[in-house]
Amino acid sequence: MRNKNILYLFVIVTFWSCTRVEPVRESDTVFFPLELNAFTVFEVTELKHDAFLEQTDTFQFFIKETIEDTAFNNGGQVSYRVKVEKSEDDTTYTFEKYVILERDPSSAQRVEDDIRNIKLSFPLRERKSWDANELNIYDYQSARTLLIREPSTVGTTTCAETVTVDFGSDVDLFFTNIEEEVYAKDIGLVKRIFKEIETQPGKYKDGIEYEQTFYRTNR
Predict the structure, then answer these.
(1) Are 60 and 48 in contact (CB under 8 A)?
(2) In a 3-state reduction of DSSP, which class is residue 26?
């Protein structure tokens, strides 16, 4: 009996000690904050390369995303409706569309043009991978976290903690396909890069380059 009591006491002390020294980790959801009336403005540069015309058209504008309403989805989770607007000079904005943001204990999701993508997979771990298209009808899209809780300068803003996600990068002699997003603590998305370019030998390149960079927020 004495031995059993000693063993029991050892287990309790060991469990208590392990619990006590366990570091408290801040929730990963701080990189995908959701709150009503919060908005973020992005500067956007878009390059459209036309191999037939042998020219590149450059477009620069602002995108504003405002969380303006909530609702419950079919699974009982809260959905956040986001109004997306566009402006040439960050003064007068015109409505573009609505997107939906959702977050649960395992992921952060964005529904745009009726396509649901998994943007972050929780818990966040460096080199963690998942299928960004798991919740839609499209083929597998590899997503992978590259850097976790690292400082980063985006535009003129220095963010103390960010998460970089690679949504598939493939560059060779003829094709450049890059899709990458950066999320900052307490802000959310702060940068998006998308490149889909084809370059044939002796010919003008064809495709699109899109870069969306954090400009300001009311968070």
Answers:
(1) no
(2) coil
